[in-house]
Design goal:
Blueprint: E1 4-5, E2 11-15, H1 17-22, H2 25-41, E3 45-52, E4 55-58, H3 62-70, E5 75-77, H4 82-87, E6 92-94, H5 96-105, E7 110-112, H6 131-135, E8 142-145, H7 154-163, E9 168-171, E10 190-192, H8 195-209, E11 213-216, H9 227-243, H10 251-262, H11 266-286
Parallel strand pairs: 1-4, 2-3, 2-7, 5-6, 7-8, 8-11, 9-10, 9-11
Antiparallel strand pairs: 3-4, 3-6
Length: 291
């Protein structure tokens, strides 16, 4: 099925998984409106990405988002199952990898998300690596992200990106962030302090390689979670996920839901803060200031 492409000039791709699966349903439309306004305030155009009745769409309307939010069940689409969901006429919320695929096909080369998927802990016993990482080798999209989700093996994920030849550049940081945490033990390939210089690099690099770039933008300092609190919350969330038997694709949403409860909403608030920050930077990169 051909892509429904409503992306305008200076578009910033936004994923539907955050809205459909990542926040309470009554918060989804207000958050979508807020992210749209943030992108537009920087002179760029928001392009929400998802699958509606099997139609892959870049630049969803509010009514199409409402359709997904009203559905009893909406699948999470990655690059592995995207085609099947389209062929069967299903609704789907796009993860990072599927959003990159559809954005690239629509000519959108900047995408704002929260955190990347990556290498799950315990991969030596049971291989579990997100399709997000391999997507960077296939689709020329700059993904503005606050690093990798803190529930994952951050160092192994950073090594996997290196192995895949994916450039990881930091915006005003020398460290690879870990979602709720501004720093991890991993570094970046290069640091950029000026958004216009970074935008120029991305334009050249995406055209040169035909591959994606990770733009690491740490969570704002005022919203960072204290590391000691974080690791205590994570241990309890992992225990709850184990008790519930959550594995595979169900593991991450189960952990995030448990963390929201254990932290009394602080992890969700941090998640929203970093997504807003990433949308702002992505818009600046998609519509750099004229000289």
């Amino acid at each position: 099925m051909p892509i429904v492409n409503r992306a305008a000039k200076h578009a910033v791709a936004l994923e539907t998984t955050l809205l459909v699966h990542g926040v309470p349903k009554d918060s989804a439309r207000p958050l979508a409106d807020e992210l749209n306004a943030i992108v537009e305030s920087q002179g760029a155009s928001p392009a929400l990405v998802g699958v509606v009745h099997g139609a892959p769409t870049v630049g969803m309307t509010p009514e199409e988002l409402d359709t997904l939010l009203a559905a009893d069940s909406v699948a999470k689409a990655n690059t592995a199952n995207l085609g099947v969901l389209m062929a069967r006429g299903q609704h789907a919320a796009t993860t990072v990898s599927a959003t990159m695929e559809l954005a690239a096909a629509a000519g959108v080369d900047v995408f704002a998300t929260g955190g990347l998927g990556g290498v799950h802990p315990g991969y030596a016993e049971h291989l579990d690596i997100s399709s997000d990482l391999a997507a960077f080798t296939r689709f020329p999209v700059a993904v503005v992200t606050s690093g990798v989700k803190s529930i994952l093996d951050v160092l192994s994920t950073r090594e996997a990106l290196e192995t895949l030849g994916v450039p990881v550049v930091g915006f005003r940081t020398d460290h690879f962030p870990a979602f709720y945490l501004r720093e991890s033990e991993a570094g970046v390939d290069a640091r950029f302090d000026d958004a216009d210089e970074l935008a120029s690099f991305l334009t050249a690099e995406l055209a040169r390689t035909g591959r994606g770039v990770v733009v690491a933008n740490p969570i704002p300092e005022t919203n960072e979670i204290n590391p000691d609190e974080w690791f205590n919350w994570l241990a309890e969330a992992e225990r709850q996920a184990d008790d519930a038997g959550a594995t595979g694709r169900a593991r991450t949403p189960a952990l995030l839901a448990a963390l929201h409860t254990v932290s009394r909403g602080r992890t969700l608030a941090a998640n929203l803060a970093l997504v807003r920050s990433n949308a702002t930077l992505a818009a600046r990169l998609a519509a750099p200031a004229p000289h």
